[in-house]
Specification:
3-stranded antiparallel β-sheet; 6-stranded mixed β-sheet; Restriction Endonuclease; McrC; disordered C terminus; 12 helices; 3 domains
Length: 369
């Protein structure tokens, strides 16, 4: 069984990134991403150069230091414990204008990382030029930056683009450091970080690549499923588990919908009888999700799908269970990126074509490669 190329995990990481969800994607040839490093390097170079030449400004940075003259506010506690007065000095806290801010240091750190990637000569030269320019402003690389604690004004959109790309580059480098150029399938399925990349990456892929003239993508990640609970007694409502949905795809007319739940595990489990079976827990789960929508909107047609990662083989199975069409699909992560792209798009088109047929789903269909 082949290993999963790190490029394919980067592919999912790109779709999971904030950058791609907040920007127009025409700079990315998203269906031709074999040269993913070069592609990200090119876009990063464009945004960084734009930021340096048009938006780079000195910013206030909080500093604390022992000084011979008072600047800003005196920190009496630090002055006392450091015995600064005995040296004819005071410990002060003040703001200083500088180019060496946390944001710029994080950009510089990402720039140094991406120069280790496989880049074109033109992009590499431009990035090295930007690196020299940032150094001339006194910017020192530092990866200790928390994006979730930062706030960008509406005028800082270019800076925000560069920061989001910088985070993507740091995440890519960290993942490749942990796994190398490829990762074993069994190891992949035990890695919690990769599980989150898969789930968020698949949602991002469908959101950005589905034909918007045909489909509506609804990300319900983190939203509770309405289970239409009635007659709660004895405190059962407090003890009843909540169910959360990953995503849903609808036709533009909203007549047909597909509820998708990604499962980052082996699709078929070995049972005691020696058979390989789909988890009954997951089947009940996706059935419940789908029925909740069918009950809420009886005039529309809904189906459910469990989507798994797999390597070197492919499953496309479907069944109608108690009147609910259910699909069990896998995506082969050992393929080349353009093949993964085509497979994901094709599976959605095929499922909706079947849903629109009078007999929407065959009793049981399986194809293995």
């Amino acid at each position: 069984m082949p290993n999963i190329p790190i490029q394919n995990l980067w592919f999912l990481m790109l779709y999971a990134s904030e950058y791609l969800h907040q920007n127009l994607t025409d700079q990315f040839q998203l269906e031709q991403m074999d040269g993913l490093e070069a592609l990200i390097g090119k876009v990063f170079s464009q945004h960084l150069s734009d930021y340096i030449h048009q938006h780079l400004r000195k910013q206030l940075k909080a500093k604390s230091k022992e000084l011979a003259v008072v600047k800003g506010k005196i920190d009496f506690y630090q002055t006392e414990i450091r015995q600064s007065l005995a040296k004819g000095r005071v410990y002060c806290s003040y703001n200083e204008t500088t180019y060496n801010t946390n944001r710029h240091a994080y950009m510089m750190s990402a720039l140094e990382l991406i120069l280790t990637f496989d880049l074109s000569t033109t992009v590499r030269k431009q990035l090295m030029k930007d690196q020299f320019e940032l150094k001339s402003y006194g910017v020192i690389a530092n990866s200790k930056y928390r994006l979730d604690r930062d706030h960008f004004s509406s005028f800082e959109h270019v800076c925000k683009h560069v920061i989001h790309l910088s985070k993507l580059i740091h995440d890519m480098k960290l993942l490749s450091t942990e796994t190398g150029d490829s990762i074993q399938p069994k190891l992949m399925l035990t890695n919690e970080k990769i599980r989150k990349i898969f789930e968020k990456g698949i949602a991002g892929f469908f959101k950005l690549n589905l034909d918007k003239g045909k489909y509506r993508f609804i990300s319900e990640q983190g939203s509770k499923v309405d289970l239409d609970l009635e007659n709660p007694y004895g405190g059962v409502y407090k003890c009843f588990p909540h169910m959360y949905l990953d995503m849903m795809i609808q036709t533009k007319s909203k007549d047909f919908g597909l509820i998708i739940d990604t499962k980052f595990t082996d699709m078929l489990k070995n049972e005691r009888n020696g058979k390989r079976q789909i988890s009954s827990e997951y089947i009940r789960q996706i059935y419940t999700y789908t029925m909740s929508y069918k009950i809420a909107d009886p005039d529309s047609h809904y189906a459910g799908m469990l989507l798994y990662p797999l390597v070197d083989e492919n499953f496309e199975m479907s069944v109608k269970m108690l009147g609910v069409p259910l699909y069990f699909y896998t995506v082969d992560l050992s393929q080349k990126i353009p093949d993964i792209h085509r497979q994901l798009i094709k599976m959605i088109d095929v499922i909706f074509e079947e849903l629109k047929l009078p007999k929407s789903v065959p009793q049981f269909v399986e194809s293995m490669a």
